[in-house]
Amino acid sequence: MKEWLASLRKGYGRKLNLLHTWNGWLVVILALTGLILFGGFWRGLLGEGRVWVRWGHIVAGVASLVPVIYYLLLAGKHWKQLRGKPWQRANVIVVLALLVGWLLSGLLLWQFRAVGPRVSNAALLVHDLLTWIGLPYIIYHSITRVKWLKEPHRRTVKTDKPDKEGALHPAAGPQAVMSRRAFIRTAVGAGLAITLGPSFLQWFGKTLGSGESTEELIVQDANRMVPAPQPLAASSPPIGGGSQGSFRVYTVTPIPSFNNASWSFTVDGLVEQKLSWNWEQFVQLARKVQVSDFHCVTGWSVYSNTWEGIPLKELLAQAGVKSTARTVKFYSGDGVYTDSLSMEQASMDDVMVAVLHDGKPIPSDLGGPVRLVVPKMYAYKSVKWLNRVELIDEDHTGYWEERGYAKDAWV
Questions:
Q1: 97-100: long-range contacts (C-beta < 8 A, 24 or more apart)?
Q2: What is the mean pLDDT of residues 61-68?
């Protein structure tokens, strides 16, 4: 074992530099792909490409294990060289903690089906938090350690002056309060704090707060539907006690908005009687209340949501389903997104055409004025801005299923 380690450590300095370079490139790939996956804008722009970006992120994350293991084999010698350099040792510990934390939380997010929603939700929180801490730290570390900052002959302010023989002596005259390198470190740190600080505080408040983000979305609601649906007693206050967690707004198109003139709801296809309502008629339909959790396939969840609306099976019963119908197809008011359930899945008691969330109208950002809720499946089945339900005699592959997601989206 000792001979093998000695052989491995030959050319230690060159290997350590190479390791640092490869790790840096992996972090760049992870940062870029992670930001693309996080941003709602890219979901619509990339379409199917987002699935490939996700797999690229996963592969780069798993690959990051290699430089970590390799470094640990070299760490003994490196640690000895850092004796008497506490700041450099601290930097090594921070970087290793970030890499290991990213890797472990990322693996849990990758295997979200195996670990369950609560574990993956916690893993996502850790993954995001490490990103908010780690990326600014890595940017700061990278910029302030570029080669030209470390070479004395490239500095404008020099503290030593060579004599005729080449020996260095303190420079005459007044000295700068801080060196060029110290000034740039301070400037970079302040720039990152000013640029990223407000965004981090906003993320922190939305992630750890209880319902503030949903309240903000209600205030920003772009829909103009009159009259507003009046909640049942079980919704106000919500029997679920109020949702726990924050929704992340994802969309494949610009978020649509509706008013009474532009909105209608239809049940058609292989039915005995086509049903159609305008808004004033739809809000008069008898509604029920249920409490359920809401799980996104990207790893986050919102618990104890109180939904109020019409059970889907009741709408289908009212229309009368023909014996040839095999699939229920759902249309989004964005004109692009569709998805489907089998007849058996659509008959589950908790599949609901929802109008209210926690006793308040569903805002446009969360899929209002009406959205589908399928609690036992991941949220890409819960079609937002729902305005049409069609019974068909064949299978239908939904928007995200066409792009690599599972057709059966069981949690």
A1: 98/130, 98/133, 98/134, 98/137, 98/138, 99/23, 99/64, 99/68, 100/68
A2: 86
Identify the residue with better confidence: 140 or 148.
Answer: 140
pTM over 0.85: no
Tell me which of 158-162, 181-185, 218-222, 288-292 is least confident. 158-162
For 29, other C-beta atoms within 10 Å of its C-beta total 17
pLDDT at residue number 9: 64
Rounded CA-CA distance 74/9 in Å is 6
Q: ∠ CA(207), CA(213), CA(217), 5° rounding?
A: 150
Q: How far apart are CA 160 and CA 167, in angstroms?
A: 9
More confident residue, 32 or 385: 385
